[in-house]
Every structure is written in structure tokens, then in C-alpha cells.
């Protein structure tokens, strides 16, 4: 490896030129590391057909708006679960519930998934996610791998770093990447410092109703809030998040937001914020309980950090938080204990925007600077608490000891990793074993598909003396963060249970009916191998006839209580398609605004006579 230590002023250029730095690794260099097990790499990742992977990988789909599910170690793509964007494969965005959840939005930008937790460990029940593109938060149920709720988060613009949840899923916090005036009203950028804010939201969820809810918000200064992490164990009541652009630049951020030597980590005690809300220490703004730190004092502190930080991660023991700077070569290890002490003694360096600023030296424990490692972004941990940090510029993973700062190992990856994810690597009890580098640039890794390449995920074996890249998988744009959970923690259902209380559901042919109420037509139908029955009492039970302009509501129940017998329901020429999974009742509503003859068919291949699973949708023209 060529030694190259850029001058500090060259760091920015180095960051931008990151992809050039390691572009010329030979395949031999790529697999130069080897560990001492007797298995070949192929054997380590081979999961025979029918056998299951040991872990699920939930990789965020970035601006696809979706979540990608992979098996580890095979790196087989198992499913894409639609979250913030429509998906015709599953009818997501067409059926009434998902259409209502997506509202008027057509895309999302999902960066950070987060599992629900119990005592700081994944419990395998829910997944949370946020949408940087259109400021939303989503809740996914892991019995069915389907989204149950999406909320728009008002007053924020680009909740980036979330989702991150507290140790018992009390809250999901959503800091915001962009500052905007509260309520998004118009305000000239000349008024940026006075009128703009970076609002952070505290979101709770109700697991009975499977609903998200905004508990309160905090009107932080007009900076960019980036990555965050919740405390664990000794720091369980706390959370940390990085900020950049504390310069409050309003244009050309690449240069202007990189001026100051230090930005901040925001350190906050969510138990205290919760208490402030209970005590009425907030203003009511645009229907939200909003804490203004310059006015409602307590619970929030700033810790100076090397300029323009990106990631911040809490160690599994909850004692330290590690910040990484895009432009600073060093990772900084901070001590929660030291911070608590300084807060107790009110040993502050001053305040900024009404928020107390702690002294860097009194919270910092050490600066860690592995030789020639550049562009540290995100850190994960193994079962011994050792840290693995992605180096975006020098395209590698560096393993190091947070206790001593010593570099233990490093492995090149192709190329420019953003996050990495270790097996249960952000819980109180990581597994070690596997780490996956989520690389931004695949370049020469796969068969070419033109000028734009897929992203690349590289699986690294952590079990040997040295880290070793053992498998690689292309992936659609674009995983930012991912989480890896032990497969046996997730308990899926195989069919939807019968719900006799659901007025939309019908479970036998003789219950099927088509009901007209004025100009509304309600269909209570069933889908089964290999037919649709909308009304069993008429001559052609698989036909729906309406008048042009009618509102049509179709409730369809899949009565094949048999795993994997999913049916689809599409109306040819009407731009409609929904899915009904085994036992599920699903609803679609639309206006019959086109007169004519439109075949109905099942889109999800379900039996040998799938082609016969059809019907007709007839729309009588207005006179
Ligand atoms: Cu570093 Cu959105 Cu977590 Cu991308 S973020 S890499």
C-alpha cells in the first residue's frame, strides 16, 4: 500500500477524490488476508438450498425508499420490502391502507433502519425507519415484514440519522439534516440565524395499535444534525448526535461549512426532556410540544468535536461515544462518565445559542489516528467490544481497541465504504462473526451494466486472526446503514389468522356479495386457487359491473390458508394492482372513470391454472 499522508488542506480534495486512492488493487491484493480456519471462502458462505442463513440483513434502500432483506452469510437477496415508495410487485401504494400511508408522496430516501430493542438488545419485533427525502417515519411489523404506519414529521426537513431507538424502545429520535423555519414558512436566507431551526423529534409508538406518534420536539439551532446513537446501560438515559455547519453557512456548504476547527456533538438526557414536557416546560407550536433550549433550560449539552463530524457511535458497554470526522483523520473517543461529571460540576466552557458547552479536554478521552487511515465515517463493534471503523477515503475497515486506541487490523474494501454493519453490532451484546462493508463504489466488481454501477456489499469474516473478505454482493441503490439480526429472533407468521370481527372479510363463497349504495359499489369477494368470486349468487361470479363514475370499493380475502399462496388482483387497463397474502383481506378503492371492458387477472402466479384466474370488470358508459 502506498504511503500517502496528505496535508490537512488537502483532506477535502482527498475526500472528493476518494475513489481514486485504491482503484488499482489486484485481485490477489484483495484477498491477501487469510485466517487460520480450514474452510475455503466458498465453504464459509455456502448455504445449501433449503437451509437457512444465520442472520437477516436489513439494508436501507436509500433513495429507492425501500428496505432490502438479505441472508448472511450467503448474501442472497431475499426480499425488498416497500416502505416509502410505491411497489407494484406487492401492490404497495395501491391498496387503501398503503395508499393512505404514502399520501401524496411518490418516493422516499431511507437511510437508517433500527430494530426495536429490549434492554439494549434487538427483540426482533419491529423495524423503524425514516425518510430523509420527505420527512417521514415508518413502522414495520416483523411478523409479516409489512409497514403498519407512516407519519409525516412536521417542522423538520430531512430526518437523517434516525432511526435510532433507546434501549427499551421508549423513543425513536429524529434529528434533522436541514434547517428550515419552523412550520416551513417562507423566510429569506438572510434571516437564517434568527428564523431557521434544526428541529429534533421524539417519536413513540403504540404496539397494540401499531401507530407512531410524535411525543415532543426540540428547536435546536440552525445547524445540520447528522448521525446519532442512543446510550446504553450506564448511559441509557442519554443520546448523542453529531452536528456540522455550526458556521450557519447558507450557501456553498462544501467550503463554508468546513471553516471552524470544531463543530459539536449534542448530548442530551431524554429522561430529563421527558420530565420537562411533563412539567410544561415547552411552547405549543404548530400543534407540537416544542422545547426551545434557550428558554426551557436543561437536558441538552454541547461537546466540541473535530470539524464536520459524521458518525457517532456508543460502545456496547455504554461508557464511551466515538465520533468520526469526514475531514479529520482522527476518531475521537469521549467518555460519558467524564461528561456526567463535568455536567454535575457545571464545568462549562460557555454556551452557544443558550446551550451549555462542555470543555473538549474534560470529555475527550483520546484521539485515535491509525496511520494513513483517512475519512473515518462509522463504527461498529464485536463481542469483545473492539471497534471497526469505515474509512471512506482510504477504502478500508480498521479494527481498533477503544480501550487503548491501538490499531489491531485493517482490510481493504472496494471501494469507499459508508457504513459497515456487524452482527448485532450496535447492541449491548454484539455477536462478532461477520461484518459487512456497505461500499459506495463498485466500479470493476461486477459485470458492467453501463456507466452507473450497483453499490457493493462485502462480507468480512471476523472469526479468524485477521479480517477476511469472503463474499460480495451487488445491491440496488443505496444502502446507507443496515442492521444484522440473528435469524431465530424473528418470528414470522405463515398465514394471516382469520379475523371474524373484520367487516370487510369474507371467508366462504356464500358470504360473497356486491352491494350498491347510491353511486358506490362495494364488493366483498374472495380469491382462491384458481378463481375470483365476487358474488357467488349470480350467473358469472367473477364479474363486476358498475356504471361510469361510480366509486368502487373492492374487499378481497385470500381464503387459501396455505403458506406462500399469494394472489394478486389487477384490472387490465385501469393501472391498478394489489396483493392478498394467504388469509389476508385487502381493500382497493377507485373511481370507475373509464367506460369499457377490462379483464381482471391474478398477478401472483398461484397454481397450474393461474392463467384461468381471471374475470371481467365492466363499466357501463354514461348516457
Ligand atoms: Cu453515513 Cu445517511 Cu448514515 Cu450515508 S449516512 S453513509
From TrEMBL:
Alphabetic keyword roster: Copper, Metal-binding, Periplasm, Signal
Signal peptide: 1-23
Keyword NADP: no
GO MF assignments: copper ion binding; cytochrome-c oxidase activity
Domain spans labelled Cytochrome oxidase subunit II copper A binding: 518-623
Any one annotated GO CC term: periplasmic space
InterPro entries membership: CcO_II-like_C, Cupredoxin, EfeO_Cupredoxin, N2O_reductase_N, N2OR_C, Nitrous_oxide_Rdtase_Sec-dep, Nos_propeller, NosZ/Cyto_c_oxidase_sub2
Domain of life: Bacteria
NCBIfam families given in the database record: nitrous_NosZ_Gp
Protein name stated in the entry: Nitrous oxide reductase apoprotein
Amino acid at each position: 500500500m502506498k504511503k500517502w499522508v496528505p496535508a490537512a488542506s488537502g483532506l477535502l480534495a482527498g475526500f472528493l477524490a476518494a475513489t481514486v486512492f485504491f482503484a488499482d488493487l489486484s485481485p490477489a491484493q484483495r484477498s491477501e488476508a487469510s485466517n487460520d480456519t480450514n474452510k475455503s471462502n466458498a465453504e464459509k458462505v455456502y448455504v445449501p438450498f433449503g437451509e437457512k442463513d444465520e442472520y437477516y440483513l436489513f439494508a436501507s434502500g436509500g433513495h429507492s425508499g425501500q428496505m432490502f432483506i438479505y441472508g448472511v452469510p450467503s448474501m442472497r437477496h431475499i426480499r425488498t420490502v416497500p416502505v416509502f415508495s410505491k411497489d407494484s410487485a406487492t401492490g404497495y401504494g395501491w391498496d387503501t391502507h398503503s395508499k393512505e400511508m404514502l399520501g401524496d408522496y411518490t418516493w422516499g430516501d431511507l437511510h437508517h433502519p433500527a430494530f426495536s430493542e429490549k434492554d439494549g438488545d434487538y427483540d426482533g419485533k419491529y423495524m423503524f425507519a425514516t425518510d430523509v427525502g420527505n420527512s417521514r417515519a415508518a413502522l414495520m411489523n416483523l411478523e409479516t415484514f409489512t409497514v403498519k404506519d407512516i407519519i409525516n414529521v412536521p417542522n423538520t426537513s430531512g430526518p437523517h440519522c434516525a432511526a435510532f431507538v433507546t434501549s427499551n424502545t421508549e423513543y425513536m429520535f429524529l434529528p434533522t439534516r436541514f434547517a428550515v423555519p419552523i412550520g416551513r414558512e417562507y423566510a429569506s436566507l438572510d434571516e437564517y440565524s434568527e428564523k431557521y431551526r434544526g428541529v429534533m423529534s421524539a417519536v413513540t409508538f403504540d404496539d397494540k395499535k401499531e401507530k407512531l406518534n410524535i411525543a415532543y420536539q426540540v428547536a435546536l439551532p440552525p445547524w445540520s444534525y447528522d448521525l446519532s446513537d442512543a446510550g446504553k446501560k450506564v448511559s441509557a438515559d442519554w443520546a448523542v448526535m453529531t452536528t456540522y455547519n455550526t458556521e450557519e453557512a447558507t450557501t456553498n456548504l462544501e467550503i463554508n461549512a468546513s471553516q471552524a476547527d470544531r463543530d459539536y456533538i449534542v448530548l442530551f438526557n431524554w429522561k430529563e426532556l421527558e420530565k420537562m414536557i411533563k412539567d410544561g416546560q415547552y411552547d405549543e407550536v404548530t400543534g407540537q410540544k416544542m422545547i426551545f433550549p434557550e428558554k426551557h433550560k436543561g437536558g441538552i449539552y454541547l461537546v466540541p468535536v473535530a470539524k464536520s463530524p459524521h458518525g457517532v457511535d456508543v460502545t456496547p458497554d455504554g461508557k464511551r461515544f466515538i465520533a468520526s470526522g469526514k475531514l479529520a483523520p482522527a476518531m475521537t473517543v469521549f467518555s460519558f462518565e467524564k461528561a456526567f461529571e463535568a455536567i454535575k460540576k457545571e464545568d462549562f466552557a460557555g454556551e452557544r445559542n443558550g446551550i451549555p458547552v462542555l470543555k473538549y479536554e474534560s470529555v475527550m478521552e483520546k484521539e485515535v489516528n491509525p496511520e494513513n487511515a483517512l475519512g473515518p465515517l462509522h463504527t461498529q463493534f464485536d463481542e469483545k467490544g473492539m471497534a471497526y471503523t469505515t474509512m471512506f477515503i482510504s477504502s478500508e475497515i480498521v479494527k481498533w481497541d477503544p480501550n487503548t486506541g491501538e490499531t489491531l487490523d485493517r482490510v481493504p474494501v472496494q471501494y469507499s465504504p459508508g457504513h459497515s454493519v456487524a452482527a448485532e453490532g450496535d447492541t449491548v451484546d454484539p455477536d462478532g462473526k461477520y461484518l459487512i462493508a456497505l461500499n459506495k463504489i463498485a466500479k470493476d466488481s461486477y459485470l458492467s451494466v453501463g456507466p452507473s454501477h450497483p453499490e457493493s456489499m462485502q462480507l468480512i469474516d471476523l472469526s479468524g486472526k485477521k479480517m477476511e473478505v469472503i463474499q460480495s454482493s451487488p445491491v440496488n441503490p443505496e444502502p446507507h446503514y443496515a442492521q444484522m439480526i440473528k435469524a431465530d429472533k424473528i418470528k414470522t407468521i405463515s398465514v394471516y389468522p382469520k379475523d371474524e370481527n373484520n367487516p370487510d372479510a369474507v371467508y366462504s363463497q356464500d358470504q360473497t356479495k356486491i352491494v350498491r349504495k347510491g353511486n358506490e359499489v362495494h364488493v366483498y369477494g374472495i380469491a382462491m386457487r384458481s378463481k375470483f368470486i365476487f358474488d357467488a349468487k349470480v350467473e358469472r361470479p367473477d364479474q363486476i359491473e358498475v356504471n361510469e363514475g361510480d366509486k368502487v370499493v373492492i374487499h378481497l380475502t385470500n381464503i387459501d390458508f396455505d403458506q406462500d399462496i399469494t394472489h394478486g388482483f389487477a384490472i387490465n387497463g385501469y393501472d391498478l394492482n394489489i396483493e392478498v397474502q394467504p388469509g389476508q383481506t385487502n381493500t382497493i378503492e377507485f373511481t370507475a372513470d373509464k367506460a369499457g371492458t377490462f379483464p381482471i387477472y391474478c398477478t401472483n402466479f398461484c397454481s397450474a391454472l393461474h392463467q384461468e384466474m381471471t374475470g371481467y370488470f365492466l363499466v357501463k358508459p354514461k348516457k
